[in-house]
Amino acid sequence: DFGIDGWRLDVAREIDDDAFWREFRRRVKAGNPEAYIVGEVWLNAAHWLKGDMWDASMNYIFARSCIAFFIGEEIDYGALHKTLTPPGPPGAEAFAKAVAAMEAMYHPHVVAAQLNLLSSHDTARFVTVARGDQSALRLATLFQMTYTGPPSLYYGDEVGLAGGHDPLNRGAMPWDEATWDHDLLRGFRRMIALRKARPSLRRGSYSGVYARDGVHVHLRRLDNDVVVVALNTDRVTRRIDIPVISALDDGATLEEAWANRSLRVEGGMLRGVELAPRSGRVFQTPL
After folding, report:
1. Measured in Å, how far apart are the chain's first and last C-alpha atoms?
2. What are the tens digits of pLDDT across the range 75-110?
3. Which of 90, 113, 186, 256 stands the most exposed, by the fewest C-beta atoms within 10 Å?
C-alpha cells in the first residue's frame, strides 16, 4: 500500500512452509503485480522458483563462478566465504560450463530474474577476495552487466571500498569523495550505461561462443541488437577469432563500445580480435 517495489527475504529457507510463501506471493502481487520477490538461498533454489512462491533468489552461484574465473589462482581463501569456494579448477572452459549449468538450473524466465551479485553484506567484498586486484572486479562487473538477469551492486564496490569478513564487509559508505577511486567509478558508470542503452543486454538471448586460454566470449541478441563481449583473464595478450555465424551475416559491421573502432564479420567470424592482458572489449551493432 505504500508503494513497495519488491521484497528481499532474509534466510528465507528457514520458513519451511510452502503454503505460507504461496499466500505471501498472492498478497504481494495483489498489491503490486510488478513487485519483485527475491529470496536469500545460497545454492539451488528451484524449490521456491516454480512460479508460485518467489520470482528469484540471490544468485550466489553466480558470485562463486565469477570468483573462480576472474580471480582464479589469486583467490584469498582466508577472506572467502566457504560456500563460495570454487568447485573445481579455474579457467575459461570451467567458467563456460558453470554458466551453462546456471542456465539449465531454472526456467528461462527465472534465469532472467535472478539477482546476480559479486559482493554482499554476508561475504567479504569481491575486491578483497581478489587481494585488491581491481582488474578482477572490472572484468567480473563487465560480465555481470552483460549477462542475463538483474545485476546487484553492493554499495561501495564502485568506488573501491574493501572489506573482509563480518563486520568489515559492512563498513560504512565513505561519503568523502576525495577517498573514492574515480577511475573505477567511471568504469562502473559506463558499464551501467551500456546495459541501459542496449535492450539485448536486458532482455536478449545469451550464447557462450568462445572459451579457451583464459578468454571467454559471449553474445547477447534481441532482434537486430547484437552485443559481443570478449573477456581476457590471462596475463598475456590474446589474439582470437570469434564465431558469430549464429547471429550475424557476413559483411555486418560492429562498433566497439568506448572506442572509435569497428569490425566486419568475415566468414562467420570476427577475425583477429586482440585482447590486452586482464581486459575486456565489447562490440555492438549500430542502434
Report:
1. 39
2. 999 999 999 999 888 999 999 999 999 999 999 999
3. 186
d(CA 128, CA 107): 33
Nearest to 36 by CA among 2, 1, 4, 7: 7
Residue 117 burial (C-beta neighbours within 10 Å; 0-12, 13-18, 19+)? buried
For every residue of 79-113, DSSP letters joined together read: TS-GGG--SS--SHHHHHHHHHHHHHHS-HHHHTT
- Return the CA Rg of the chain: 19
Dist. CA 210–CA 218, nearest whole Å: 7
Would you name the residues annotated as active-site residues? Answer: 10, 40
Band the pLDDT of 2: cuts 50, 70, 90.
Answer: confident
Q: In the chain, what percentage of residues exceed pLDDT 70?
A: 100
pLDDT of residue 89: 87
Nearest to 243 by CA among 205, 217, 213, 275: 217
